[in-house]
Amino acid sequence: MTHHDEHANLPPRIELNGPAPNFTANTTHGVLDFHEWKRDKWAILFSHPADFTPVCTTEFVEFARRWEELEKKQVKIIGNSIDSIYSHIAWVRDIEAKFDVPIKFPVIADLDQKVAQLYNMVHEPSSATAAVRCVFFIDPKNTVRAMIYYPLNVGRNFDEVMRVVDALQTVDESGVACPANWNVGDKVIVPPPTTQAAALERVNDKKLEVTDWYLSKKSL
Fold first, then answer.
1. pLDDT for 124-137, tens place per residue?
2. Which is nearest to 142 in space by CA: 7, 29, 34, 12?
3. How crowded is residue 22: how many other Cβ atoms within 10 Å of its Cβ?
4. Does the active-site annotation cover 56?
5. What is the CATH number of domain 175-220?
6. Tens digit of pLDDT for each residue in 48-82?
7. Which of 88, 161, 175, 188 has the fewest CB atoms within 10 Å, i.e. is most exposed?
8. Rounded CA separation 59/41 (Å)
9. Among 33, 26, 20, residue whose Cα is nearest residue 110
10. Which conformational region is residue 74 in: left (phi greater than 0), alpha (psi within -120 to 50 degrees), or beta?
11. C-alpha span between 71 and 81 (Å, rounded)
12. What is the 3-state secondary structure (H, E, C) of 114-136?
């Protein structure tokens, strides 16, 4: 078998700024077509290792609490794990009862690991069957714009999830970049000049906060 043949049947690798593969799946909201469901909106697709596990439960509560804020930002949420639809329903109902938060987003019952394989959520050294904690940020054009992976025993930072959403939407709307630790309201980075003449012009630009020709900031 040639090296090429070995990889002939593997799904395409998920890559930053690459396409977010479509799928049809059974969820707690019924059967849905992913691209049709998110249509023209941002989406966060996240995986969790298993229902009725402590870390995942805390994360579901947090996603539920942020649901309304994400809706306002035109971001839809969808969860995924390899548990059955009945397990998902029971767990969601349990979380709603114990934590007094409504779970308004669908959860995929990925029993055949179709979605997990498509999005490279199962990492063999971590677990042969459970999806690790992945978060995929997918834009309205179905492009994967950011990915965050966490191990099974460390829960996600939801302030960072929200910050990434805000940053991605800001760079798209304003054609800028976001510096380290950027939050909404902070100054943004203006793209650096690409010619010597433009660099000379930039260092004399009084409208910007110019550190040097390659690093300039402004307020939005």
1. 655 555 667 899 99
2. 34
3. 13
4. yes
5. 3.30.1020.10
6. 888 898 998 999 999 999 999 999 999 999 999 88
7. 175
8. 22
9. 26
10. left
11. 22
12. HHHHHCCCCCCCCCCCCCCEEEE
Q: Counting Cβ atoms within 10 Å, is residue 219 exposed (0-12), middle (13-18) or buried (19+)? A: exposed
Q: Is the pTM of this model over 0.85?
A: yes
Catalytic residue among 44, 56, 122, 144: 56
Chain length of the chain: 220
Element (H, E) at 26: strand 24-27
Place of tokens 């054009």: 141
**How is residue 216 written in tokens?**
């300039």
Which tokens in the block code for residue 47?
């995986």
Where exactly are the structural domains of the chain?
A: 3-156, 175-220
